Amino acid sequence: MQNDTTYVSPLATRNASPQMQEIWSPKRKFTTWRKLWLALAESEKELGLDITDQQITELKAAIDQPIDYDTAASYEKKLRHDVMAHVHTLGEVAPNAKAIIHLGATSQFVGCNAELIQLRDALKLIANKIAIALDKLAEFAAKYRDMPTLGFTHYQPAQPTTVGKRATLWMQELVIALEEIEHRIDSLKFRGVKGTTGTQASFLALFGGEKPTQEAHDKVDQLDRLVTEKMGWDPEKRFAVTGQTYPRIVDATVLASLATVAAAAQKFATDMRLLANRKELEEPFEKNQIGSSAMAYKRNPMRSERICGLSRFVIGMTQTAYTTSAEQWFERTLDDSSCRRLTLPEPFLALDGTLDILINVASGIVVYDKTVEANLAAELPFMASENIMMAAVQKGADRQDVHEVIREHSQAAAQKVKAEGAQNDLLERLENEDMFKGIDLNAVLDPSKFVGRAPQQVDQFIQNVITPIRTRFSEALNYTPDLKV
After folding, report:
1. Which residue segments constitute the domains of the chain, with CATH numbers given?
2. Contact, 162 vs 148, CB < 8 A?
3. What pTM was estimated for this model as a whole?
4. Annotated catalytic sites, by residue?
5. Which of 94, 183, 197, 266 holds its CA 20 to 30 A away from the CA of 376?
6. pLDDT tens for residues 180-201?
């Protein structure tokens, strides 16, 4: 059992997947620092600095060795500096390389570049999970492409749609969110090798001494490019200029992209909650699941509610990231550091959990077709009034007379429904009017005649929009989330 006197984030214990937690883990962070120090040393050696093969070999070997976190913590307590603590910790396992570790670099060489790698990898995982959610929702939409259901605007009954078509609206927002995430991945730049205030002065001194030549300037530029390449980044996608850090507005734009995903997820979950109240759709409910400790009959949409709660958290974090960016002074101030230790990993952990829950719900949505049919039937006579009127006119009735009769009976039927809780008896009322004799009102009320091109829209959307996404993310689609609660 975990230490019950120490706070542990529920994002880790209840929500985020092992994959996302690994990306933001200490091991990933500090191992990436060591890889950056190795890439820097290798590049400096290749460009002529006095670094030996033995030093490079020791640094390479250290990457695969377990990190001694106790030693690092001891150094940090003494030095009050996390990067230098890990420089010394690495130096203990690579003693011959200790003198050239972090040569010419500032703390943000490892800090910023490692975070950019984490951001990229975390964004890719988010993209994968959006694609999985789309795949599951597409299966649902295809299955119910032509099942008529009551539409709503202003949360008031409106023109019918289909259950599948409504699902494409959820999917469309997730597609937009996926495009936003993919754009963010594609536009993410590497900080590279820039020095303490971004001028690369320390590296210029290493290669050129007091009077650097053009060759020294060229080598600094080559160093920036080489390190970027060694870390698996396109060298054309590195910042041309930075201060001490990469621009903190990058964090804000990344979190804004996450908020877009969260908003799309919350829209889906909110609709699911409303439809559960109408007893039309329901999220998966486990055999032994308890809805309420007091009300044993309850089947609460708790997973959809969790999606809404976590999404709200992600959306709210965006403001903090923008404020952090706005309040950076000149080349850099340290007030970003403590805040970013929260605002970078936690929205990713929360959104990762959100998408896992969404995938789970989308994989097992229950449709109560008889309730869907009954709810539509209760409102359809009102919506069919124009169709009924046209049928009567075609039989020779006066359009204005028909309109008035339908208006009076519609209002009377609606009043009876609202005031007495009675069934909608509009059809029975109209059947007793002579002008509607000979008209098959039930045929006029065929729900399939009121959904327009909804089934065809579902087919086209899946074929034109979802199929390319399925192809692009084919290797990710077999994932099944393991919900902790």
Report:
1. 11-103 (1.10.275.10), 109-198+241-365 (1.20.200.10), 385-444 (1.10.40.30)
2. yes
3. 0.93
4. 154, 292
5. 266
6. 999 999 999 999 999 999 999 9
